[in-house]
Design brief:
By secondary structure, the protein is of the alpha/beta class. It has a single domain, classed as Rossmann fold, CATH 3.40.50. It contains ten helices and ten strands. The strands form two sheets. It has a six-stranded mixed beta sheet with strand order 6-7-8-3-9-10, with helices on both faces. It has a four-stranded antiparallel beta sheet with strand order 2-1-4-5. Helix 3 packs across helix 4, helix 3 runs parallel beside helix 5 and helix 5 runs parallel beside helix 6. It is globular. The N and C termini lie far apart (51 Å). Bound molecules: adenosine-5'-diphosphate (ADP) and magnesium ion. Adenosine-5'-diphosphate (ADP) binds next to strand 2 and helix 1.
């Protein structure tokens, strides 16, 4: 679905005479493969290059060096830009900046009207997309009245209406309360499982990556770590060096295993923690 080969990107500052005054290497030699239907998480502290990377996946930015292919299309070739943008949707941090319509259905239909689709097809896609994100009952509501999580789901519906193969979420929950965060992450998981949409989720919240197929950890524009969530959270020391943590339940698990070496770490979910506690306690009693 997505391949990058030795991708690098510099933000270049120039003075009034177009002389280069500053070069900031935001991406540095990134080669990755993302398969169709994957749920990928991207971690990294502020300024590590996550958003710059995301913007390369739908040709908002073009590689300085190396290449990016989306569905086999080279993002550097202008003739593919439109198809790449249709196949890869982006959801950003601030839901308010992404809502355009005065009514939910107008908002979801916006991109479709620009495609010039017949009105019955637009109707069909708007209804189907709102259904997918669990917002059908709000079809005639004003977006202003919705919670942050609901607004993000409307933004996701607007993307789903374009029938993309892939959605890139750039810290979609950063401005939401815990309930809104849960709604958005559940929606992303559902679109991945039930509709086979390839998901790339950029986040600060360790809890949100637990269900991912693969995690990339970025640092200074490079991929510093990669693996399954379990592999990543098995290395709390390395994560700490990258100014990242493990999920709270994993942390609790590590605290228990410090005293009880037989305790199976890392645990990634509350269910795993409960199971592990039961097993460890059971063994003690025998
Ligand atoms: N428009 C820009 N102009 C100049 N530098 C930028 C711009 N956007 C980001 N950067 C710099 O590029 C680096 C990576 O930024 P970014 O991709 O936004 O990281 P992240 O999303 O992980 O916080 C940072 O050093 C940041 O300051
Ligand atoms: Mg960012």
């Amino acid at each position: 679905m997505i391949n990058t080969y030795r991708l690098s990107y510099d933000y270049v500052k120039t003075d009034e005479n177009d002389n280069i005054t500053h070069v900031n290497r935001a991406l540095d030699d990134i080669s990755i493969d993302i398969k169709k239907g994957d749920f990928i998480a991207v971690l990294g502290h502020n300024g590590s290059g996550k958003s710059t990377f995301a913007k390369h996946l739908n040709a908002l930015l073009l590689p300085g060096e190396g290449s990016v292919f989306v569905g086999g299309m080279d993002t550097a070739k202008p003739e593919y830009t439109w198809d790449i943008r249709k196949s890869t949707g982006m959801v950003f941090q601030n839901p308010d900046n992404q809502i355009i319509g005065n009514i939910v259905e107008e908002d979801v239909a916006f991109g479709l009207e620009n495609l010039g689709l017949p009105s019955d097809e637009i109707r069909r896609r708007v209804d189907k997309s709102l259904e997918m994100v669990g917002m059908k009952e709000f079809v005639r509501s004003s977006p202003n009245k919705l919670s942050g999580g609901q607004k993000q789901r409307v933004a996701i519906a607007g993307i789903m209406a374009m029938e993309p193969a892939c959605i890139v979420f750039d810290e979609p929950t950063a401005m939401l309360d815990p309930e809104g965060r849960r709604e958005v992450i559940e929606t992303a998981r559902k679109l991945n499982k039930e509709n086979g949409i390839t998901i790339i989720l950029i986040t600060h919240y360790m809890e949100e990556i637990v269900g991912a197929d693969k995690v990339f950890v970025m640092e200074k524009g490079r991929i510093a770590m990669q693996g399954t969530p379990r592999e990543i959270f098995s290395k709390p020391k390395e994560l700490k060096e990258l100014r990242l943590t493990v999920p709270q339940v994993t942390e609790i698990g590590y605290k228990i295993s410090a005293k009880h070496p037989e305790f199976p770490s890392p645990v990634l979910t509350v269910e795993e923690l409960t199971e592990a506690v039961k097993k460890t306690a059971g063994r003690k009693q025998r």
